[in-house]
Amino acid sequence: MLGLLLLGALAAAQQGPPTDGAGAERRVSDQVRAVIAHYRSADPVGMPGVPVDDPMPIPDMRQSFSFNTMTFKNSSVHGLSKFRVDHVETDLTAMQVTVKVTIDLLQMKGQYTLSSLFTRSSGDFLVNLTTAHVIGHGKLQVQRSGQLQAEDINMDIVVEDISLDFQNLGFMGSLIQGILNSIGTFLFDSIKPFILQQVNTNIRGEVNRNLLGIPQRFPNSIPPLDMAIAEARRYVRDQGYDPYRVEDYHYSNLVFSADISHVWLSGLASFHRVGDVSVNVTRSRLRVDLHVGTGVLEGRCHWEVGLGAVLSRPGTTSFTVDYLQVRVLASQPLDVRNTPVLEDLQLELGNIQMRFDGAGTADYVVELAVNVLPNLLRYQIVNALEKPLKKRIQEVLDSLDIEEILEEKLPQLDRL
Fold first, then answer.
1. Which secondary structure element, helix H or strand E, spans residue 157, and what is its range?
2. Whole-model pTM?
3. What is the CATH number of domain 2-211?
4. Mean pLDDT over each residue of the chain, to the nearest integer
């Protein structure tokens, strides 16, 4: 629910500035600033701009039991906007989002009438629904026109405790005391579908209205995430990282020495998505888990191996690497005064096959190189990519002032 709303709020940045009922202009930048300020709180409750009716009116209800009938009128549910976001899990591959929120207290207020064969009582009633957990599952789909649209948002609500307070029950209170507990469950089960239907309709409509403002159209056969990865591949090529020059490497011990130099790798720009890509929000921190991999990499290098100080053999070789996979886990506090952090970066290199040129394999020195060089080359490639990549990514993240960047970009949203 909330994840789709946030997506809709971001999409609203693509629209012209909306207006409120009085016709006054509400700038998109002001809406974003409100969300930013909201998450500076140590205990952020609710969400600025989220279209939740609070209080939400409930239709009249009637329940009969034994020889008694209760009617409930002028009822409304209070507290729906006082939610806390526990967890948001977004699967960008499947275009799905799951949100878990908690509401400390929901209250249903209204007037009741209790009628029996011989007596009648009426007054105000209050139902306290303590610790309500709301779980929502939503999905975005690309329509035939290429427009992103939100499908049904499926939600459920469970509560940990229900307590009731009926005024003016008088003598009837003692007679129906055993039934009151079931009345609480009846009221909750009765209002639950109505709440879910109304919230689903309001949220889906709001999200879709915002998504209509996105000028980008997506082929319905290609997920938008894969289009973004295609743009990243083009960036890698334009920056000259394919082919990539790997730093020279020297290894030696008391008996054996090896030098690998002039190493070039081709195919790094062939990377594609591997598995799912997720965006999660937990404890006011947003985490992105991205897993990409390449196809077969091709390379060439110069090598020289030696035994002791008397025997050595130089040569050149071409080689292939079955794949290179990179998994990145980065996080950003929702309080944007803090900088993003690279939490983890993992590289996995596939099998390396080398094709030696020059000396024949009958030479036992070259036979040793055939067995040893692939492992040394594997270490050389991983070491050349992993450590500098981690360091450089974190340096870039440390240099980012997210709050300042947002302030620079927000005026652009108002001009779109």
1. strand 154-166
2. 0.59
3. 3.15.10.50
4. 76
Q: Domain 224-415 classified CATH 3.50.50.60?
A: no
* Residue 45 CB contacts under 8 Å (≥ 6 apart), including other chains: 82, 83, 84
Do the domains at 2-211 and 224-415 have one common CATH topology? yes
- How far apart, in whole angstroms, are the C-alpha atoms of residue 414 and residue 26? 10
CB 349 within 8 A of CB 321: yes
Is the bond leading into 243 cis (omega within 30 degrees of zero)? Answer: yes
CB 227 within 8 A of CB 273: no
Residue ranges per structural domain of the chain:
2-211, 224-415
Characterize the bridge pairing of strands 278-282 and 272-273: unpaired
- Residue with structure tokens 């050389």? 380
Is residue 265 within 8 Å of 246, Cβ to Cβ? Answer: yes
pLDDT digits (tens, 9 = 90+) for 267-284: 888 888 887 677 777 767
d(CA 119, CA 263): 95
pLDDT tens-digit readout, 11-59: 333 333 344 443 334 566 777 787 778 778 777 887 776 667 788 898 8
